[in-house]
């Protein structure tokens, strides 16, 4: 049984193996080559929080590999709305399928699901916790687009407090000797326990101080849905924005990533600039999730 709940469930070697496998699946993801290795397998996509990329790319990955998908795409559409517990839901669904992908609004829900499942569980985002499959596709994108993973200068910008993509990515980057710059409004700073884990391998900075040096500019949306106090959100809404003027200061071979969805933190005029890679990054979710599914189901 191979659950994927946290990026720390994988060693560096296991991460690299998934990235290598994803390379092999790229032509399948593009529909150029047929591959039916998951024929006869069923994936259950349980999404108790909204998603476009993660849900659809898992479904695409499964279908491109010959498998089938069953879905819960809203809490209201499942028997949880009638009072069924998450534990019972998982016990039942795990007897219908070969693996479960779960997104939930509560941190820890994916691990709890794994404890109640008869099949592998993949965390597709648990509250402000982790989003390990996003990290694998982020690493894949960086390796493809920068042609290396080691010793890069990476600026993490935006909501470092609530962004689960950041919480997973930052742990992975420590495996690759990255120079990490943390750039955020004060109230959206990376939580203290993450800072301790980074063991001094980071620097808080202002974007203008480091922009000419960085290889990767990783931008995140302010996670409005995680704020308990609307007034706190209003204090930081719109407080940073990547514009063409900012991008012009980047190195010409630097790349801009964003897990998406974007709200207003990257000007749409940036989309056509050579450094923008966030839509390509979203595509890479398909081969990377093919690699993950083939690992846990075969
Ligand atoms: N990046 C990401 O998790 O996007 P979705 O919320 O659309 O799945």
Topology:
Blueprint: H1 12-29, E1 42-47, H2 53-64, E2 68-72, H3 86-93, E3 99-104, H4 109-115, E4 121-126, H5 132-146, E5 153-157, H6 164-173, E6 179-183, H7 192-198, E7 202-204, H8 207-210, E8 216-219, H9 230-236, H10 244-247, E9 255-257, H11 278-297
Parallel strand pairs: 1-2, 1-3, 3-4, 5-6, 5-8, 6-7, 8-9
This protein binds phosphoric acid mono(formamide)ester.
Phosphoric acid mono(formamide)ester binds at residues 51-54, 125, 134, 259-261.
Short description:
This protein is of the alpha/beta class and 298 residues long. The chain is built from 11 helices and 9 strands. 45% of the residues are buried.
Would you kindly provide a written description of the structure presented here, covering whatever features stand out?
By secondary structure, the chain is α/β, with parallel strands linked by helices. The chain has two domains: 7-130 and 285-297, 3-Layer(aba) Sandwich (Rossmann fold); 132-282, Aspartate/ornithine carbamoyltransferase (Rossmann fold, 3-Layer(aba) Sandwich). It contains eleven helices and nine strands. The protein has a five-stranded parallel sheet with strand order 7-6-5-8-9, with helices on one face. It has a four-stranded parallel sheet with strand order 2-1-3-4. The mean pLDDT is 95. Phosphoric acid mono(formamide)ester binds at residues 51-54, 125, 134, 259-261. Phosphoric acid mono(formamide)ester is lined by residues 51-54, 125, 134, 259-261.
